[in-house]
Amino acid sequence: MILRNQVEWALHCCVALSELPADQYVSTKALAEFHGVPKEYLSKALQALAQAGLVDTTLGPTGGYRLAKRPEDISFLDIVEAVEGPTQTFKCTEIRKNNPCLKKTAKFSPMCSIAKVMNRADEAWKRELRSMNLKILREELTDKLSDDQLQKGTDWLLSRR
Amino acid sequence: MILRNQVEWALHCCVALSELPADQYVSTKALAEFHGVPKEYLSKALQALAQAGLVDTTLGPTGGYRLAKRPEDISFLDIVEAVEGPTQTFKCTEIRKNNPCLKKTAKFSPMCSIAKVMNRADEAWKRELRSMNLKILREELTDKLSDDQLQKGTDWLLSRR
DNA sequence: GATCCCATACTCGGATAGTTGATGTCCGAGTGAGAGGGG
DNA sequence: CCCCTCTCACTCGGACATCAACTATCCGAGTATGGGATC
Lengths: 161, 161
Fold this sequence. Notes:
Chain A has seven helices and two strands; from the N terminus they run αααββαααα. The first copy, chain A, has helices at 5-19, 28-35, 39-51, 76-84, 113-130, 134-144, 147-159, and strands spanning 55-58, 64-67. Chain A has a two-stranded antiparallel ribbon with strand order 1-2. The two termini of chain A are 38 Å apart.
């Protein structure tokens, strides 16, 4: 029922990338040290983001990651599903069809009523995450943090090349 | 990210119980065979429901489970959380505090902005499940299924004592 | 000074473990209902 | 006919085994950059 921690890391990395100039690459190592997480494992999350087309990557020295789209075009749901895969809390195994007092030829409505309810809840969850993107979050952060704090962060990341 | 299948079983069992006369106990064995799931493992889910006060239980022969409240007072969220425990998809590990270019004395807002967004999504999910209860579902079922189908089901369960 | 080559730093992908949690099974203890025997 | 006891079916709770997924870690292959060597 809980998302893997790579999701948290991916979200924080995307936010960090959205603070940088759009054409700058940042290495996995820099992102890992910045967030205090294991570099090699974080790499898996970033690879998932790259595979989903949310970030660009370049090889070699000065290589690394940068956002592949504008911050307003990357929703939280995009990031979560890139790392976690398709998100669905409920998996219906159709146990209603095991009912021993119904004939095998009995007709069933196309979807189990219980599954329908659970899916509705999942949809509400996704809707909430789709409505939030990196640009909105960035604006919240610039309101909350001092310019100095933000600047120090971006400088630190860019100096680590 | 996925709920355990005990949640599905618990939901179906509660719906079945809500179809029965309120004072009738049904054994684990009957519920397990009715749904085609392992009896001993289903028992764990039912115990969780009993612990949460959603169902009553009696020992001995003719023992079993019955609803402890009126169907309209048992929401889907009650059942899900009884079996699954507190539901939360996102666990914030506060990696924002690992930022190496902030002093240790730096002040942080009480909640990580990213966690706030994720929690909002979780709340939307819970709100949806809180709005659905056993009575509403039961009314949906009586509309959808024939009286004969429902009657057969309750008779089968009651005859298995 | 221009060109070529090589070392370096990085990403990518696969292989490999350890740990946790879900899934499922088994068994003994406790309990209450009903049957059967004795008064 | 009444009461006691015994058996049985059931729940409860813990112990145990299995399996999948998450959480890492490590290493080799491939690639682009930049510096140094060569012409």
